[in-house]
Request: fold
Amino acid sequence: MYVSHLQLADYRSYPEVYLELGPGISTFVGANGTGKTNLVEAIGYVATLDSHRVSTDAPLVRKGAERAVVRAAVVRGDRTAMIDLEITPGKANRARLNRAPATRPREILGILRAVLFAPEDLALVKGDPGERRRFLDELLVARAPRLAGVRSDYDRVLKQRNALLKSASASLAKRRDVDLSTLDVWDEHLATAGADLIAARLSLVSELQPLVAKSYAELTSAGGPPVLQYRCSAVPDDATPVPSEHPQLVDTLRAALRDSRDQELQRGVGLVGPHRDDLRLHLDDLPAKGYASQGEAWSYALSLRLAGFELLRADGDDPVLILDDVFAELDAERRRRLAEHVRYAEQVLVSAAVPDDIPDELRGARFVVREGGVTRE
Amino acid sequence: MYEGAVQNLIDELGRLPGVGPKSAQRIAFHLLAAETADVKRLTHALTEVKERVRFCDICGNVSEEEECRICRDARRDGAVICVVEESKDVVAIERTREYRGRYHVLGGAISPIEGVGPDDLRIKELMARLSDGQVTELILATDPNLEGEATATYLARLVKPMGLKVTRLASGLPVGGDLEYADEVTLGRAFEGRRSLED
Reply:
């Protein structure tokens, strides 16, 4: 699939911009701060309803404007889907599909599939577990939009249960009696919803493993091989394997919730469940976080994204591949290898501050980005 | 901001559920323009509802007497109790004309975020009704959302030692609907709850 049109209104630095894109490679070149990333960020937002740079929507709206509008046409085979998104900070987004209102913005998830790689992705290797959980969950939802529902169900259970733990812990601190029978009920719901999410993540990780190893070997000959390991907060030590079947996962979560109940009540917050899990990244048998060099960490993060790309591609449709300001961070050898790897994708969007950073293999349609405007060269 | 009485009215109307500031203003000006007799009728209805309507001592449904119409009706089956969250759920089930048992209105669902626990619901009253051994089946008809499910699970566990039959309303596809329009959660539930056509 590819994005054939992109129109932005009051999005970030753009009062108004309209772009026609084609399949194959398009590059966006311009000095820092002119708005290259804003363009690819908007395309990423249409795919995931989330920005790779900020966690709230407020910065996406141009200063002084009330709402931002992103409109994209997505070509898939011989069909074109028009997606309209209205982003109003503090309110629910509004979405339209082919000019008809979608009942929930969630319904447009999965229409545009994109894999975005940006400098922020170094945090996949060096950052907190939350970054890696987000990576897994975004990929899950892109592959099966149904899982967006599983995630929001889990989040809801978590919120209710945490509210209960908080009030129970406050009562216990004042030495008041607490009725814990409702906590049993929330434990049960957390175990079932949590097991759904963990089972999906586990099967994703086992699918990613060979693809990450392959991408990594293609990008660099240094270090490796990369090994992915999903760590469950419900399974306390590394030696115990994480069960992969749903019923066993429910049992494991139940038991872990029982064991950590005193601690949870003391701290007033849930300590067990997929929201506390981690995807551990190893190089050979050393943890990449801490041991990997800068170059290795970059290759690792890039391999994770490329593996995601390969998975989505195997499901049928080529996702749009977005490389945001990536080449400046890589040496000449890695640039060349990356270019070789991605040049056959149906659509590749590349942004760079210095035109010479873009390898020759990725010469395509070139757009020059200047303060507040984009022109095709 | 308007002068005293008008603004007071807008403020009061704005506190009602589902009424925003714009609607409140519209209703207020509608009332200003209306005939005095119409407004009198409305104020009378408002006072009357607070004076005359109360909650049934037995089931918690809205009623004008100590016991509601359904609890007084000797023809209703006293062996089955259907547990719902709100009085309006009773009306919804009554419209089916299928159910001949009695009701119990909880007054909400368990939701720690909103500070609603079992003690805030009419669960003690329900347990008292179950203790005399007359009831043989309890139908849990709380809403099919997370809070309603949690409440149903809680009640099912609570009454389990009493040894009565506990059932939960089925969830699945709407009658007369199209399969293709069902969302994936509903369709998933419908699959789980599928039944054999042979018996």
